[in-house]
Specification:
Distance between the termini: 97 Å
Number of strands: 53
Number of helices: 5
Strand content: 35-45%
Helix content: under 10%
Length: about 650
């Protein structure tokens, strides 16, 4: 029970930190240690971990500071310690009918009420208030959120609360002045002198002759001519200072300083801050779907290319029409950030692009490679369907994210040395007949495609020359008049370590995945795992065809509505495992490989590595498996239907039963 008075006093006291860790006394009464709040400068402290409270017998007390938490070191005279009343506003005692009515409980409740009122009073003292003698002509309630959004709070001519836009509030106001200094030498006869700016009025001019101020009555001004009533003496020094008011907020951003705030923040110019990002609209781009913005966008790119430090280009929402290629073949390649692929479209004007002309050209060399860039948040489209989206060489360690490629003959042409890049949420759609989504030429290494969609056209992805460690993960391949993925490196080129995982293939006209290099062993190492293949309507086309490839795995895939072979391969293709694939058997009428060699339509592994598989022809010297594996021959006869792998480590040792 608080057995003392609650005196009339402000529940707030402010100290400098000159007392170090304390104690810092407070003279308002409290009931519990938690009834005070403590601030170190602008940081609210926590009871027990940042400070302790001592309560005197009369309810007043003191605070001692603890370092190591929100107080990094012992406070000094440069710090501020603030103690305020902070009792939780609540009622903790309930008096019930016929129950005890204790004086101690009544005292605590009444004391708490007074403390609450004093706390509220202290907070009100820190608020903006109207004088008691004001006569209110309005309700002085803030306007609705929609009305006051992006406005400045002001008081109208009656002193009531109102809002105004910044531009309207500053209209006609004098926010500063420009001063121009002109100096002349008198020749004893000349009375008229020409200034570099107009004074407008002689009240805007201060004139000195040999350092002596001249009265306004001793000269007149007209336009840029200042005329003395009497010629200044020979060799006298004349100084004319003209001041003109600045009535708008325009100014040289290079002369205005900016500081981010916080420890270690460095002051720099507003110009430098704004140039961190270059907007295409800074150079006149309109984005209205009609105006040709080619020159404006290229000017923004050039500004970033020639910047002393890496700059990024910003493309606000809009439809930007272009009539020529946007080039980044020299200088510093900037990152490009659009407002989103659904919000920003860069479209080739109808008939403006020739066949295979690129929208973006980033053709670099080993000495001028582009690295560590981001291309994000925009869609490229050609009204005529003949342009390429990107033509790139020597682009490394970069991210392409949320990029749309629509109605293009070729979405991205990776011509030479593209490595360690990530393509995320890249989408091709509405592609014209015979088009390709992504084409991999020479030296495309360590590339990841995730969450991408390849839709329409002829082919989704095509490999024509060397590539290494390219991975497709969680991508969709839909429609198309040819292969979804074609891996067909030409003579002398090789693709290694190709991974296709967790992808979805639907409605390919022929094979979904065709690995058909020209050279023997033209593809070394591939992993086709956890993919889903579906076609509407059912077709005899195989999802996968293989030729001249080695060291691959086809595992844990699911095929639906294919009425022919799951995969087709020639005799030169070998791989380590075809296992755990699943099929909708209601749509299958045959099983095996299209070359007539022993087929593996259904392969099941057990825990020892043995498999159960089936197909046409004898498995001897054809099917590689562990001892204990079983093979069901679909074209066998008496004693040649079931084969058991009884010996050997390769594809021999099969015995008919």
């Amino acid at each position: 029970m608080a057995d003392y008075n609650i005196n009339a006093i402000t529940r707030r006291v402010v100290y400098t930190g000159s007392a170090g860790l304390g104690p810092y006394a407070f003279s308002f009464e409290i009931i519990d240690q938690a009834d005070v709040g403590v601030y170190f400068n602008q940081t609210a402290l926590t009871l027990s971990s940042d400070y302790t409270v001592t309560i005197n017998a009369n309810g007043t007390g003191s605070v001692n500071i603890i370092t190591g938490g929100n107080v990094p070191s012992t406070p000094t005279a440069n710090d501020t310690i603030i103690i305020i009343g902070a009792r939780d506003i609540e009622r903790t005692t309930d008096f019930v009918t016929a129950g005890d009515l204790l004086a101690s409980s009544l005292n605590e409740q009444l004391d708490s009420n007074i403390i609450f009122e004093q706390q509220i009073d202290e907070r009100v003292d820190r608020s903006i208030k109207f004088p008691v003698f004001d006569s209110f002509t309005g309700d002085n309630v803030l306007p609705a959120a929609a009305t006051r959004a992006d406005k400045i709070l002001k008081f109208d001519s009656s002193g009531n609360i109102a809002v105004e836009s910044a531009s309207a509030l500053a209209a006609g106001a004098v926010v500063g002045a420009n001063f121009t200094n002109n100096t002349f030498t008198g020749n004893g006869s000349q009375t008229a002198f020409t200034t570099t700016v107009e004074a407008g009025s002689k009240n805007n001019a201060q004139v000195y002759i040999d350092g002596v101020y001249q009265l306004k009555s001793s000269f007149s001004v007209s336009s840029t001519t200042l005329t003395f009533t009497e010629a200044p003496p020979l060799n006298s020094q004349i100084e004319v200072i003209i001041g003109n008011a600045i009535d708008n907020l325009d100014g040289d951003s290079g002369n205005i300083n900016y500081n981010q705030g916080g420890t270690g923040a460095q002051t720099r110019t507003v110009e430098g801050k704004l140039q961190d990002v270059v907007s295409v609209k800074d150079f006149g781009a309109i984005g209205d779907g009609v105006t040709d913005d080619t020159a404006a966008i290229q000017a923004a790119i050039n500004a970033a290319l020639n910047a002393s430090t890496n700059s990024a280009i910003e493309i606000p929402a809009g439809i930007y029409v272009i009539s020529n290629t946007l080039t980044m073949n020299t200088g510093r390649v900037p990152s490009i950030y659009g407002a989103g692929s659904n919000a920003v479209t860069i479209i080739c004007a109808a008939g403006s692009f020739s066949s295979a002309q690129a929208i973006f050209s980033i053709l670099r060399t080993s000495g001028t490679r582009s690295a560590n860039n981001v291309f994000k948040g925009f869609t490229l489209r050609d009204a005529s369907g003949v342009a390429h989206g990107f033509e790139m060489s020597w682009v490394t360690e970069s991210l392409f994210e949320d990029v749309g490629l629509y109605n293009l003959k070729l979405g991205m042409n990776l011509t030479d040395t593209i490595f360690s890049c990530h393509f995320d949420s890249v989408r091709t759609a509405s592609m014209p007949s015979g088009s390709i989504g992504i084409q991999f030429a020479d030296e495309c290494n360590h590339l990841l495609f995730s969450n991408c969609i390849f839709s329409g056209g002829a082919k989704g992805a095509v490999f024509t020359e060397s590539a290494n460690a390219v991975k497709f993960n969680n991508c969709d391949f839909e429609g198309g008049t040819s292969y979804h993925i074609e891996v067909s490196p030409a003579t002398g080129f090789k693709v290694r370590s190709l991974t296709i995982n967790n992808c979805y293939f639907e409605d390919g006209a022929t094979f979904s995945i065709a690995i058909t290099p020209t050279d023997t062993d033209g593809v070394e190492g591939f992993d086709i795992t956890n993919n889903y293949f579906i076609v509407q309507p059912a077709t005899t086309a195989a999802p996968i065809t293989l030729r001249n490839c080695t060291g691959g795995t086809i595992s844990a895939n699911t095929a639906n509505r294919y009425t022919g072979y799951f995969y087709s391969r020639d005799g030169t293709s070998t791989f380590t495992e075809v296992s755990n694939n699943n099929y909708d058997m209601s749509d299958l009428n045959s099983a095996g490989q299209s070359d007539g060699a022993a087929a593996r339509m259904l392969t099941v592994n057990n825990s020892t590595g043995a498999i159960m598989t089936n197909g046409q022809g004898s498995p001897e010297s054809v099917v590689t498996a562990h001892i204990g594996s079983m093979y069901l021959r679909t074209d066998g006869g008496a004693s040649t239907v079931l084969y058991i792998k009884e010996s050997g480590t390769g594809n021999t040792g099969w015995v008919a039963k």
